[in-house]
Amino acid sequence: MKVVFLGTPEFAKTSLEAIHNSNHEVVAVVTVADKASGRGQKINQSPVKIFAVDHNIPVFQPEKLRNPEFLEELRKLNADVFVVVAFRMMPKILFEIPSKGTFNLHASLLPDYRGAAPINYAVINGEAKTGATTFFINEKIDEGNILLQEEMDILPNENAGSLHDRLMNMGANLVVKTLDGLSESSIEEKPQPEVKHPKNAYKIFKENTKIEWSKSSKEVHQFILGMSPYPTAFTTLKIGSEEKGLKIFTGKFEIQPHGKPIGSLDISKNTFKIYTADGIYYPLELQLEGKKRMDIKDFLNGFRNFEEIQMA
């Protein structure tokens, strides 16, 4: 089938590559506009664009998806289907163009974890399994009819970054299976199950990444794993008279009564403990504001006076 692919990050590029290597033909790619970033304001292209250019696939980068000229160019391609992976909200006038419809890859077992951060929240909530879903796009967010689903176990102590990469590869294969099924008319689309209280995966903002030490050790641990490596969970230290953010990427915990104030710490040249509601959390990989990411040994070696360090 002739495919127009819409996506931006590495997660999407992997699906694009899988389609390109299949029996289907990618006739065009739609991705975000190039952006200048960093001190030198270097122009950065999305991973999807880089792949498309390297493989001589036409690229569209419209500022507005309702642009009449852009829509007309897509219609001229006579694509059978549009495939969407990690893109943005699409207007009906766009997703209704192809004859076989437009489907999206979502990194959860819908209807659970609709929204922008399904991988993070599956880990934060301590789920034992997650998966990927392909579904037809409609005018509601992540609520269209399901085409295919595939489950994946979440490994013990797995962080969001590891799970992202595994789902990225599973999802790419699921996208090709979905294209094969649509081509052969062998897939029966099904409405998403009605769930009274579906688990949500709202977009994560900076204020959502602060660690709440008043929670259980297990909840704290899962929160840190679910935010690692990005956007990263943080807490705040007071070093002397100065407050500094501390990102925590990984650690371990033990459940035990301690009689210490919740959210307080013990720190020395050999150990770093933070007291939770029901135990102790031990950061193992962290990054102090203004410093690079490092393991706990190097972090502790950077201090001389431990008595001046406390939780802010």
TrEMBL record:
Keyword set, alphabetical order: Protein biosynthesis, Transferase
Keyword Transferase among UniProt keywords: yes
The EC number(s) this enzyme carries: 2.1.2.9
Residues covered by the Formyl transferase N-terminal domain: 1-178
Domain of life: Bacteria
Positions with a binding annotation for (6S)-5,6,7,8-tetrahydrofolate: 108-111
Protein name per its UniProtKB record: Methionyl-tRNA formyltransferase
Phylogenetic placement of the source organism: Bacteria, Pseudomonadati, Bacteroidota, Flavobacteriia, Flavobacteriales
